[in-house]
Amino acid sequence: MLTVQRLALWLVLWFTASLYGRVNIEQKHWEANLPGGYCAWISLKTLLLHHGMKELAGKVIADEDRLGGGLEGFDLVDGQFVRKKLPPGGCSPEKMRKRLDQYKLSYKMQSPPDENTDILYDAVERNFGAIVTIKQGLHAVTLIDITKDKHPFTYVLPDGRKETRQERMVEYIDSNAVRAWKDGESKKLSTTKTSLTWFVENAWDGWCVVIYPSPPEPEVVQRLPSVPLPTTPIAPIDVSTLVRPEYRPLVLPKKSKD
Hints:
The protein has 258 residues and is of the alpha+beta class. 29% of the residues lie in helices and 25% in strands. The protein contains eight helices and eight strands. The longest helix is centred in the N-terminal third of the chain and has 17 residues, at 4-20.
């Protein structure tokens, strides 16, 4: 049933982006990666928590440990993508799609070699966030921003000279960085920021998953209880015994002649 809380969540997700200019995922929902490499599932869990789906988010890792082994997907081996059985924690577009369908989630997925960036902009502008893969698909992160304004980035040219360029910035949550902070290897918990040009040309492989909040459920109309039908049969009526009313024509009084 649609609740006030779920309706409020819908309104917050639609309007927060315009207020903050980025996907406002609370820091308490930044999940750390697990040994064995669960990065895609960790990103999924982070987005589910962002959408207020706490109960479902709590099942993601347990379900992956229970169901994730043996499914086939593509993995990078010696510089080439090969189809192989993935261990628990490993992910592929096919494997992710099967799990999202199992959860009956609303989502949009783009798979390599498609590298259309429209899906990225839409995920950020609507405050949804997205799972994206980098490093030729070897690592998944949670996209939270593509800035409209430009920032300075320094490039090292082939001849060794450095050049500063003004470019739009991409920001994402890296579960490995969260893990390093929780393990004490990093003193500061922060996001990763890079130029949009470098991200699209050198990092992102085209895979992207956007999770949509569940659509509002219809309200249940409260109806009055129905009147039970009589359980005993009604005796038939003898129409010959009915008294027919006497018909008398209506007589209007005559008008007096004055």
